[in-house]
Write a structure and sequence with these properties.
Elements: H1 2-14, H2 16-31, E1 35-39, E2 42-46, H3 48-55, E3 65-68, E4 71-74, H4 77-97, H5 101-114, H6 124-134
Parallel strand pairs: 2-4
Antiparallel strand pairs: 1-2, 3-4
Helix pairs in contact: 4-6
Length: about 140
Amino acid sequence: MVVSLAHRLAAYVWAGPNTMLGLGAGLVMLAFGAAASRIHGTLEFSGGAIGLLFASRMQPVRFQAVTFGHVILGTSAAALAGAREHEQAHVRQYERWGPFFLPAYFASSAWQLLTGRHVYHDNYFERQAVESCTRH
């Protein structure tokens, strides 16, 4: 029990710098009408004007959900529900990689671009998250 608690605490601390980025973004979303909830050890922020903005087809960068450490941002509650398992896989990746996750993620995307692959779908971390969802 004590080892498990220590392990969980260490995972939160290790992912902490990325979680802070997510908290900052989540607070901005809250200021524009988003909702927040705590689910499976994460804070989820969804909806509001910013959620609508990122869901819009007018944006060059669109997403339904994105994870920063132990914070998941979603365009809507329904989008979060649909993406939750995938985003939880990213939470586990943040717990393993800590502050190195974002540089490694972007390096993988850059490598995919340089080798003529898709920067998102062929990204190592995205493929790993998709695979973890198909195993369940």
